[in-house]
Amino acid sequence: MSVNSLQWNGQTLVFLPEKALWVEQQRLLLIADVHLGKADHLQAHGIAIPSDGERANLERIAQLSQRWQPAELIVLGDLVHHPKAVSGKLEERVVALLGSLNYPITWVEGNHDRRRRLGQLQGQPPLSRQGLWLSHEPEIPPEGQLNICGHLHPVSILRQTSDQMRLPCFSLVRSIPRLVLPAFGCLTGGFPADRSSEQWVVADETVLPLPNGSPRRRAWRPRA
User: Fold this and answer.
1) What is the DSSP letter of 115?
2) Closest Cα to residue 24, out of 41, 8, 40?
3) For the domain bounded by 5-209, which CATH number is listed?
4) Which of 24, 117, 153, 216 has most Cβ atoms within 10 angstroms of its Cβ?
5) For the stretch 1-35, what's the b/e string if a residue is b when 16 or more beta carbons lie within 10 angstroms of its beta carbon?
6) What is the pLDDT of residues 5-34, one digit of tens each?
7) C-alpha–C-alpha distance, residues 207 and 201, integer Å
8) Is cis: bond before 138, omega within 30 of 0?
């Protein structure tokens, strides 16, 4: 088994440096927390930040699709940042990109994008895919299933003496069981992952397992 993958009940889950998850046997591509329109939303509230992150987000989706040729793309919530945050121009670009993909796209509704549509695409409740319970917010999965979710934007905080580094991570708590994906979007920030979790960090365009015993901070959950 590769150091950047996880075997779970006969399925191979591959952690991608683009902060996405590949489910090999089902050929599913999973991402969470893109937060499209966040730059425009912050700019509208007087915070001066560039908008080129939206282009980068869409390009990464297109590149992942071309590389992996998935049977289905599943977005685990918060595709958009706010129901009114996506400009008409950005929505046109998103709809054009999604329309160019030659496979189904499923959008699990998140707390930021409830009751939002993008073209023909609309959010839906959590769902099951062959032993994987897919949701936006963390949930207790049905018996025998693994909850894969987003929402928490997990990061590993590594410290050594006075130095500190924050890295997005995949966070697995086997006792639930639950796997939390890092936030896909460029402007999403992050919060410390559960201290009890196994973690795989994204750094320098690769994914590496975090050794047990590495110094970490206490986990903190974002408000819903």
Assistant:
1) T
2) 8
3) 3.60.21
4) 153
5) eeebbbebeebebebbebbbbbbeebebbbbbbbb
6) 999 999 999 999 999 999 999 999 999 999
7) 6
8) no
Spatial strand order in the sheet of 5-8: 5-8, 11-16, 20-23, 28-31, 72-76, 105-108
C-beta of residue 18 within 8 angstroms of C-beta of residue 185: no
Q: Which residue, chain included where needed, has tokens 């969470």?
A: 32
Give mean pLDDT, residues 102-117: 81
**What CA–CA distances, in Å, run from 200 to 85, 146, 156?**
32, 17, 9
Alpha-carbon distance of 57 to 48, in angstroms, equals 19
Find the length of the chain.
224
CA distance 111 to 217: 26
Token pair for 101: 């993909």
- Residue-wise pLDDT for 173-210, tens only, equals 999 999 999 999 986 778 999 999 999 999 989 999 99
Q: Is 186 exposed, middle or buried (0-12, 13-18, 19+ CB in 10 A)?
A: middle
Residue 221's CB is within 10 A of a number of other CB atoms, namely 12
| Burial of 222 from C-beta contacts in 10 A (0-12 / 13-18 / 19+) | exposed
88: β partners: none
Pairing assessment for the beta strands 132-134 and 191-192 based on DSSP bridges: unpaired
Give the integer Cα–Cα distance in Å for 172 and 84: 33
Strands (DSSP E) along 58-97, which ranges?
A: 72-76
Which of 176, 137, 136, 181 has the alpha carbon at shortest distance from 14?
181
